[in-house]
Design goal:
Number of helices of chain B: 16
Strand order of the largest sheet of chain A: 1-2
Helix content of chain B: 25-40%
Number of strands of chain A: 2
Shape of chain A: globular
Distance between the termini of chain A: 28 Å
Largest sheet of chain B: 9 strands, mixed
Oligomer: heterodimer
Shape of chain B: elongated
Distance between the termini of chain B: 40 Å
Strand content of chain A: 5-15%
Structural class of chain A: alpha+beta
Largest interface: A-B, 18 and 33 residues
Number of helices of chain A: 3
Helix content of chain A: 10-25%
Radius of gyration of chain B: 23 Å
Chain lengths: ~130, ~500
């Protein structure tokens, strides 16, 4: 019972391009915090969209986000200039494309990017 | 990613939260060294089991497949591959390399081992060093076959008597790890993340026949994972790296390495597989020899950019003690010599006063990391020496006199202050404009670990014989490098000993 997430992504992208999206996308849905761009998931109580085959207490599978988000598109969307090409978080110097999404992205809580452990990279579109 | 303290706190939380049901499984430590019996349930069986996906583990997997292994699995406790191997400068020392031949540089495994023995201060393992040096070219070739790219020139790192160091064009171990991971996928090596090694499993004859793994491990996030017994036909290679980020363990060896001393390693370098091997009888060697990198910077976390920048530039730069405006070390001495000298740079209260390293802009810009250093504000460009002195509060006249004196050594080829080898500084005078970074040592490498023989077999303290079925390679092993490991000598060590382990396992 997956909602039409693709539509949502496009909507979010449009908002993003319009520059009207504020940095804060974490909001309260009833009892749980979540991302505003995933509002439909919360409206439908669709925990199992990410927490596949498990109660929501368990972490979702590592690359479940890619069921809706296209990996190659993500790589393209975050491409850096040639001299910094390996700073692309979705295809990076140390791990290529092998970093699970939630090592940097928190659906229910703030996270910081993995590379911030050593580097001062600026990812202006990253939503904590 | 959590830091060590969070990790340890999380683990305690986990133990507490396990409650009664969990207590039964947690009671296992009394039986940590497990002997298999008829009740042992095996979740999976693999021909070769490799723990750790750094240089050693991946090289072993590729070599084993090459030698005909059908079923090789590599486990990593982290959610991605490479461990500390993907967090470094990608510097690779090889004697008698193609580039040395091209440039007419005379070298040999014996000369390289002699340089390493000198830095090892008499306690390095000559047999292992020679073995690694003799096979380093094969390891380089393995990385090239997988698609690694290297700069077309060699560097001469601290303590090396000749230029013999390759560096990946991305100036990171990632330039080797990524291709090796891809190669593993291509040839059918099974790669599994979030799989944390827990204990070894033995048969009645004391042979290692499997391992208990914790699957679905979430490092630093309160989830140890589900226990699963993995059986192996040929053996287990432990290639889990060092323990630079286990503050309790490293401080127990060297009390000066408090939590104030940071590390270039990822938070996962915590050494629990090493401790498990000690528990079952492996011999600890040189655990207190923990290396700090003298090229690191207090202005960024981890390995960062300054490390690579300094490694390349030290040969034609001067390091200056802020208080005196004078040099205080041979900028390309071995790592321990330099780190000790830097740690003695203090202010009047005894607090750290990180020294500055000054390089002529025209020489610094030869290496791609300079751009990053300037871009991310961890190094700075100055048009005049007066600006440098003002910015870092260095007495100007002594600094000017020091530069003049040093430039005399560049001209004469003899460093009368600290005996620095000046070949690589030839013609490279310290002249404006300048690039300046600050340096302060960070924990970088653990020379200590388990004792292995030259076939990568783990030696048993009970009978001084190899523990059947158990192999180790890379930083988790001890004694190879002695007191101080020379830069760019870990990658050949890790890869060659991984390949060696695969060769031994396939003969067994």
């Amino acid at each position: 019972m997956k909602p039409q997430v693709k539509v949502l992504i496009i909507a979010a992208a449009v908002v993003l391009m319009a520059g009207s999206l504020v940095a804060e996308t974490l909001q309260q849905f009833d009892s749980v915090q979540g991302r505003s761009f995933h509002a439909d998931l919360y409206a439908d109580n669709a925990c199992d969209s990410c927490h596949v085959n498990a109660e929501p207490e368990a972490y979702p599978p590592d690359f479940v986000c890619l069921d809706c988000h296209d990996s190659d598109e993500l790589v393209q969307a975050t491409a850096r200039p040639e001299e910094d090409k390996w700073q692309n978080p979705h295809n990076n110097m140390h791990y290529a494309k092998d970093v699970p999404c939630m090592e940097c992205h928190g659906e229910h809580s703030e996270r910081k990017v993995l590379c911030a452990g050593c580097h001062f990279f600026d990812y202006p579109n990253f939503k904590k | 990613m959590g830091n060590d303290k969070e990790y340890q706190a999380d683990r305690r939380k986990f133990l507490v939260s396990m409650g009664l049901a969990g207590a039964a499984t947690i009671a296992a430590p009394a039986l940590k060294t497990m002997a298999a019996d008829s009740s042992t349930v095996w979740a999976e069986e693999h021909e070769i089991v490799i723990i750790g996906s750094g240089f050693s583990g991946l090289a072993a997997a590729i070599e084993a497949k090459k030698l005909g292994a059908k079923d090789v699995v590599v486990y990593d406790k982290m959610p991605y591959f490479g461990g500390n191997s993907t967090y470094n400068g990608g510097l690779f020392a090889v004697p008698n390399s193609p580039l040395q031949k091209e440039k007419g540089i005379k070298d040999s495994p014996e000369i390289m081992a002699a340089d390493q023995l000198k830095a090892g201060r008499g306690v390095a393992d000559k047999e292992l060093l020679l073995h690694v040096a003799e096979h380093a070219g094969e390891a380089l070739q393995m990385s090239l076959d997988a698609g690694s790219e290297y700069f077309p020139y060699l560097q001469q790192l601290g303590g090396h008597s000749v230029p013999r160091t390759y560096q990946t064009t991305v100036a990171s171990g990632g330039g080797i790890i990524r291709p090796l991971v891809e190669q593993c996928r291509k040839i059918g090596v099974k790669l599994v993340t979030r799989a944390k090694f827990d204990t070894l499993i033995f048969d009645d004859d004391g042979k290692v026949i499997g391992a208990k793994m914790l699957m679905g491990h979430y490092f630093g996030r309160d989830q140890e994972g589900t226990p699963m017994n993995i059986k192996t036909k040929r053996g287990i290679l432990v290639a889990t790296g060092g323990f630079a980020r286990n503050i309790n363990l490293r401080q127990a060896q060297d009390p000066t390495l408090t939590e104030e001393v940071t590390s270039t390693n990822p938070p996962s370098a915590t050494g629990e597989a090493l401790l498990e091997m000690f528990k079952i009888g492996a011999i600890p060697v040189h655990m207190a020899y923990i290396q700090t990198g003298p090229w690191a910077s207090p202005d960024e976390d981890g390995f960062g950019y300054v490390s690579n920048y300094s490694i390349y530039n030290f040969a034609h730069s001067i390091s200056i003690y802020i208080k005196t405006g004078k040099r205080f070390m041979n900028e390309i001495a071995d790592r321990k010599t330099r780190a000790d000298a830097q740690l003695s740079c203090r202010d009047d209260n005894g607090d750290p006063l990180p020294p500055i390293t000054i390089t002529s802009y025209i020489h610094a810009k030869e290496h791609p990391t300079m751009k990053k250093v300037l871009k991310y504000g961890v190094g700075w460009k100055f048009e005049t020496i007066e600006e440098v002195a003002a910015r870092f509060n260095v007495p100007l006249e002594p600094l000017k006199a020091q530069i003049k004196e040093y430039n005399g050594y560049v001209k004469s080829g003899v460093d009368e202050q600290f005996g620095k080898p000046m070949e690589k500084a030839k013609g490279k005078f310290i002249e404006a404009p300048f690039v300046v970074v600050r340096n302060w040592p960070k924990v970088h490498y653990c020379q200590g670990g388990v004792k292995i023989d030259v076939q990568a077999r783990v030696i048993n303290s009970a009978d001084w014989k190899p523990i059947p079925g158990l192999y180790a390679a890379g930083e988790v092993t001890g004694g190879v490098h002695g007191v101080s490991r020379l830069g760019s000598c870990s990658i050949p060590d890790c890869m060659v000993m991984g390949m060696t382990a695969a060769r031994t396992i396939m003969k067994s």
